[in-house]
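Chain A, query sequence.
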Amino acid sequence: MSYSVEPRLHSVAITDLMPTQISVGMREVEMKRVHWRAEREEKGADFLGRHAVPVVIGPKRRLYLIDHHHLALALHLEGEQEVLTTEVADLSRLGKGEFWSVLDNRCWMHPFDAEGSRRGHDQIPRKVSGLVDDPYRSLAGALRLAGGYAKTEAPFSEFLWADFLRRRIKPDLVRRFFAKSLSKAFDLARTREAEHLPGWCGPSD
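Chain A, predicted structure.
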């Protein structure tokens, strides 16, 4: 996701951050937890300094997390209390309805549930601990890491890929045989069916 940010960093309690999406890929969260454990002892402070999370100031000056939900949840589950934030915009002067409308139009929110259905902003959890698992988001993340498509600055590109895969791979396969579903996803990513998606790398020979 592309946005301009203020260079000032602020340490904020993770429990004070308000999500702007409903779901995450819990496999990806677990990967970030493992990575954090490896970095924590010797490089923890440096790691956090390089991974400030972007926030928008909303009504009542609450902080809304507009990216890096996976990282914030991973750190929370690992017992970390605070994370560095960087301010993208101050929308605290707006009313609640107008605030969510601006977030929606700037692609700073993704109110889709674990089945890929759009919900109202009132269905978005108020804490990162309330984020739910979308297995297809995990599959899309694993597909990118495997080279199935390229990383781009298009907002929520992994969720677009997740929705593409959701319509073509059965849920039971993703839940029970993740490696097999990843292999199928890789084949699908190289077809013309996926050419409209961000980061598409072209058809297979």
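The chain is about 40% helix and 15% strand. Residues 91 and 99 are 7 Å apart (CA to CA).
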